[in-house]
Write a structure and sequence with these properties.
By secondary structure, the protein is mainly alpha-helical. It has four helices and no strands. Helix 2 (24-37) crosses helix 3. The longest helix is centred in the middle third of the chain and has 14 residues, at 24-37. The radius of gyration is 15 Å and the shape is globular. It starts with a helix and ends with a helix. The relative contact order is 0.12. The model has no long low-confidence stretch (mean pLDDT 83).
């Protein structure tokens, strides 16, 4: 999926190897370094796998993005039971 994103015009794509230990803070630090060195501004984080949804929300927050999902609802985005509960609490 990452190669396809590059082909449609995304400028920066990062996909950790499957099975590797992923440190989200280290990733955010590396991306901020790239942002500064290359005079870029990241606009969003796109998860390439279902399991990356929670990480993408946290990474967006660590990168200081202005448009991101509510971190309190990250798990609900993947769990229908939690989403039902969140919707009922929202009124």
């Amino acid at each position: 999926p990452c190669r396809a994103l590059l082909e449609v015009g995304m400028h920066q794509v990062y996909e950790p190897p499957i099975g590797s230990k992923f440190d989200i803070v280290e990733c955010a630090t590396n991306l901020k370094t790239i942002e500064n060195q290359q005079n870029l501004r990241f606009l969003g984080v796109v998860p390439c796998r279902e399991a990356a949804v929670d990480f993408s929300d946290i990474l967006g927050a660590l990168l200081g993005l202005t448009c991101l999902n509510d971190l309190g609802l990250s798990s609900a985005r993947r769990d229908k039971g939690l989403m039902k509960y969140a919707v009922s609490n929202a009124g």
